Amino acid sequence: MTITLNAAHAPTDRPVLQDGSALSAIVESIGAHDFAERVLSFAAAVVGADHCAAYQLRGGELSLLVCANLEAAPAGPDLSAYEIKRQLSMVAVDAVRIEIAGIPEAGARACGFAAGRRQRILVATRKADAAYCLSIVRPAQHDPAQDMDIELLRRTAGILVSAIAKHNDLVANKPNLTPALSSLPEIEECVLSATDLSRREGEVCARILYGLSSYGIALDLGIGKESVMTYRKRAYLRLGIGSQRELLIWYLALWSATRSEPEAAATLN
């Protein structure tokens, strides 16, 4: 069964959500580690889903944006690139296309699902800059999805797609901070080269950032624990901070700025 609906001509007499909490949870978790699970929770509440995946087609490049499943469901993509592109080729800009199809037991096993037939609901929509496909899989033994449930998916497709796209942008652009804290010589060099801290003050701060305790810093530098605390206090006063958390925030900002300068110069050249 295929349902093609244009957002501009859809009925509007049914509220989008009973209380809005499930959809609000998705928006509030944008950028968080449990975002995909929130999307699945919403799909499960609407149509009883046990797997969902969202795909983006931009400039001919297909990407899997989010994927979530219950324990018995597969952990990866459940559709071929050909099928996703076929679905997206049939939807116009600002329209929402919904296709519902059964997955026979053999096909379900091939996709990694537990025994039993499944039903797949595909929600495809196209924006000016990209197209999106949301695949929702549910056990076939559930009652058939009601028209009101399908309408709810259609009504919320725009919000879901916007939230998924925003989440993907945040995750894709989030800097990898592992190098910033994994090498003590690099931490030390960054701190000392960009501040007027004394050598000892910078060494103490670098080891705090590296995760050493005051006792560990004392052993590493061959000084007393009281000296470590004195150097730390002086460094904090120079930097205008008052805690280890503030030191970490200050350092990550410094590290990001020093790493972005060569990139900016390369871009200008």
From TrEMBL:
Swiss-Prot/TrEMBL GO biological process terms:
regulation of DNA-templated transcription
Pfam family name, one: GerE
* Ranges for domain HTH luxR-type: 211-238
Tell me which InterPro entries the record gives.
Sig_transdc_resp-reg_C-effctor, Tscrpt_reg_LuxR_C, WH-like_DNA-bd_sf
GO MF entry, a single one: DNA binding
User: What protein does this entry describe?
Assistant: HTH luxR-type domain-containing protein
